[in-house]
UniProtKB/TrEMBL annotation:
Its main location: cytoplasm. A motif (Gly-cisPro motif, important for rejection of L-amino acids) lies at residues 137-138. NCBIfam families: D-aminoacyl-tRNA deacylase (TIGR00256). This is D-aminoacyl-tRNA deacylase. GO terms for biological process: D-amino acid catabolic process. InterPro entries: Daa-tRNA_deacyls_DTD (IPR003732), DTD-like_sf (IPR023509). CDD domains: Dtyr_deacylase.
Length: 149
């Protein structure tokens, strides 16, 4: 399972002009399930995401986690993170989980996030979304949890 997280001052997702999720300070997490991923990779990714120390402490050092600051988490499904651009000019998405499995793992990830963290908002799986954000820093970090072999 993979993600790109962005430390934000604020972020929101709109679908058809309707806001589906909105946060102030926190993390915008674009999340992608890949073929072979299981709940184990989702759990590891979420645990790392919530504890990653990328927020500033009183001395201005990145020493605090999302949980430490009590910030929001905006989770957005993003199968295009699995794009393979090595051949030709059209990306291949064969590494992404099949849509049904992708939805199941995304829903699992969101449910686990809501159990572990107080402020969780979402986009809408497989929808045409407009994502608005003010990146703080900017701090943008790719994350990947590989399936166990």
């Amino acid at each position: 399972m993979m993600s790109v997280i962005q430390r934000v001052k604020q972020a929101r997702v709109e679908v058809g002009g309707r806001i589906t999720g909105q946060i102030d300070q926190g993390l915008l997490a674009l999340v992608c399930a890949e073929r072979g991923d299981t709940e184990a990779e989702a759990d590891k990714l979420l645990a790392k995401m919530l504890k990653l120390r990328i927020f500033s402490d009183e001395a201005g050092k990145m020493n605090k986690s999302l949980q430490d600051i009590g910030g929001g988490l905006l989770v957005v499904s993003q199968f295009t993170l699995a794009a393979d651009t090595r051949g030709g000019n059209r990306p291949s998405f064969t590494a992404a989980a099949e849509p049904g499995e992708g939805r199941r793992l995304y829903d699992y990830f969101v449910n686990q996030a809501r159990l572990a963290h107080a402020q969780v908002q979402t986009g809408e799986f497989a929808a045409d979304m407009q994502v608005h954000l003010v990146n703080d820093g900017p701090v943008t970090i790719p994350m990947r949890m590989e399936p166990q072999v």
